[in-house]
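Exam revision sheet. Question 4 asks you to relate a sequence to its structure. Input first:
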Amino acid sequence: MDKNFFEALDALGTENSVDVDTLVEKVKSAMLKAARKAYPDCEDNITIEIDPATQKFEMYIRQTVVDDEPIDENEINIHVARIFDPKAYVGGTIQKRLNIDKFGRAAALSAKQSIKGDLRDISRARILEKFEDKEFECITCQVSQVEPGGTATLIYDNTEIYLFRKEQIPGEQLKEGQMIKVYITAIANKQKKPVIKISRVRKELVKRLFEMTVPEIYQGIVEIKAISREAGSRTKIAVWSNDPNVDAIGACIGPKRSRISAIVNELGGEKIDIIPYSEKPEEFIARALAPAAVLRVDILTNEEKDRTCSIVVPNNQLSLAIGNRGQNAKLAAKLTGFKIDIKPEVEIVPAEVTKEIESAGGAEEFAEPDKYDDILELDAAESIAMQEAAEELDILDTESSSEE
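Answer key, structure tokens:
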């Protein structure tokens, strides 16, 4: 066998991240199956030698020496035997070298398919061994390529995994060579060809980053009670200390904000609100709406599948409580598990509102007081409309003052 075989063997091992010794054993097994098909009566008498160091590849059949006509390939006449081995004798055995070309196309194809199947099994086992204990964990990868469509190819321990655009933080621009952290959401198709699914938008990524960065969380002194996230924009995380001598929020922030800064940088500048958890729903909900101040929280229903509450905030805190496009209210609702209805401290008298709108030449749709009342009934899902109405009222107030 010429050196091209061993060069191809070495390339095959490198391509599939399999050491040459393991690959040699697989090739031996495959070629042995092919040889046994070509010599069906000699199954137990065929041997194969492959040595990459000396580039030796030989196959032999062990034949018993007889003094008459051989009955099959397991026997050889003494006169023929002495051509291969001058010391051959009747009753003894010789190792006759086989011509690999004799196996034919079918045998070679069978060997090739067997090797490919073994490589798939090796690759599957290697991937599972490398990633199975990291499912639902955070790993650090290097970006090796970013395709025009946005899909990024990452390298982890010499294995390629893919981060699709929808699983990337909105607005982030990944660059080749960049080191990033990803969360393994699942390992699919474990029985055939495992697929490693990863994400940077899941809230679990933030949780794992805090566990990796804050020793008190890793040790169980500080507990993460809940997380809500809008990837690329804002995250709210509720924490609780099991030790009265340890400040949960201070532990998460770290000396000179070092811990929280490291997490924010990893997430591309995403804002993080650290909320002190409370077992009292009213207190927890009020804290979850930070940075807005809350005057009162009324729990309306507190059943497992139906949790609603009413929040009263100062009029000047209304927009802050709702947040841009309702983000603050929505994240607070996800964090606490309550559907939140936010109301201003002082209800504006509809007649006065109508008078101000009319004097300012306002839109016709605000002429009916009942319609404005509907706007004041806030819900996280209606926050955008409320915010726009509140902004319009501020403008109208300013214009009315100017006219007076």
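Marking note for examiners. The first strand starts at residue 46 and ends at 51.
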